[in-house]
Each structure stands twice: as C-alpha cells, then as structure tokens.
Amino acid sequence: MRIDLRCRRELQGGRLVSERDYVTALGTRIRDGFFHEFDCYSQTLRPSDEQGNGADGIIVFRYENQVKIGVFEAKRPQLSHLDYRWDELSSRNLSHFTEQIENQRKWKDVFAVWEMFLNELPDNDLSPPFEPFGSTCIWHSDAYRFAGRNGLYTRPWRTTDLSALAEKSSINIYKVVYDIISCKKGRPLSINPSDDSVTVINPGDNDITMEVPLPLPRELDYDPRVAAFMEKNRFESYTYLNLSKGFDGKVILE
Predict the structure, then answer these.
(1) What angle is formed at CA 139 by the lines to CA 14 and CA 210, rounded to 5 degrees?
(2) Within 13 Å and on the Cβ side, how many CA atoms surround 186?
(3) How would you classify the pairing of strands 237-242 and 57-63?
(4) 57 has which bridge partners?
(5) For the chain, how big is the Rg over CA atoms in Å?
(6) Would you state the pLDDT for residue 214?
(7) How far apart are CA 240 and CA 60, in angstroms?
(8) What are phi and psi of 238, to 5 degrees?
(9) Can you give the pLDDT at residue 35?
(10) How far does the chain reach from its first CA to its final CA, in angstroms?
C-alpha cells in the first residue's frame, strides 16, 4: 500500500506520466522494498498491441511449494477531466475495456483478477467514490457484472460509469493483496518441482493452459524464461515474491 501511495504521489507530481510508468514503478519498488525479507523479482517488457489475457501485469506470491497468482489491468482515466476518453470502441465496435474484461474471464476461477485505476488527483479528491489514497481497485467480477448491466459492450466506458461502479465496489491495493495471500481470492497452485514452474489449466476448458515460470535464485536479476513467458502471454509486468524465505510476519517498509 505504501508503494502504491508513493506511485500516486509521483503521478500527481508528473514524475510518472503514463500507465506503463506506474505499473513499472510499482513492480520495481515491490522488488526493491522487500528483497531484504524475501526472494523478489520484477521484470517489464514493452507493451503489446494485443492483450490475450486482458491484463497488464501478473504478480506471483509463493509460499513453500504453492503459489497464488494475481493479474490486473491498469487504466488511467484522468479523473480531473470528466470528459476524457479513456476507453474506445474496438475494430469490432465493442468497448475495448469490456473486451479486456471478457479476456480476463477465462482465469476468474484460478487467478485473483482486478482492475486498477490510477489517480493523479490530490489525496482525498473525489473520495468517495474513489479511494482517498493510492489507486482505486475493482475486482474483475464486479466490473464484469457492471458492464453487462449497463450496456458497456456497444459503447465506451465513461468516467461517470466508473464513478458508479467505484461507489459500490472500490477497494485499495492493501485489500487486494490481503485477500490473495489469505486465500479469499484466487486458488492455491502447486509448483512443478522439476523446473520451478506452475501449470495452470482453465477449469472451464482444459485446452486453455498457461505455464508460469518462477525465477530461479541465480536468475533473480534477469530470467530469460520469464521474458519468454511475458512475450507469449503479452504481459507488460511480472512480479514475484517468495514469502517462505525469511518471513516472520513483521515486514516494515521505511
């Protein structure tokens, strides 16, 4: 949460200027903030024109021989400009953001999936419905239901739509991470001991799978397997924390 607050301050001050800047800074600072306590890894790739999974980033939390995985899509709706067009119709005349939500759907029963709205306004502005500090997060399931009920397939999302959704469903990044690691969101997955990876199978369609590599200790600066995975699955950001290394339940960030 403190890292997200710092990123918001830098977005307010113009030191971060885009979604990509924010997502990169978030992953890098998680790694740098926790590496004394845990094995951590963070990597960023250039953005892709297509997002097969409808998400910018993936975060892997490991504890002993299991992992929990979260994926998120970041948006910067520029809340200070209510008429700013942060969504648009795709080539299929459908809302691009709703298409991303649909693409996320295939992992809803395995991963913890959320939407992350970046806010450059001063703290407490437009709060509520938006989070007073840090980013405003919405669980995928809430965004999916809202899109269906409000006809957000054939028209772009507007900030007024987002405000109505946030009024009922807004949470912060602390709540997101807490729900993941306390097993309220996402499914525990077993690690393949032969190659330090996780085989993820879509419960609704066994033909849809994802092989998620875990960085090896000797590759914590750069792991080519992770880069190849990100390229294949079109993730811009990958963050990994091994919570079983040195965890004492008391982690304090300066």
Answers:
(1) 95
(2) 29
(3) parallel
(4) 72, 237
(5) 18
(6) 96
(7) 5
(8) -130, 125
(9) 81
(10) 13
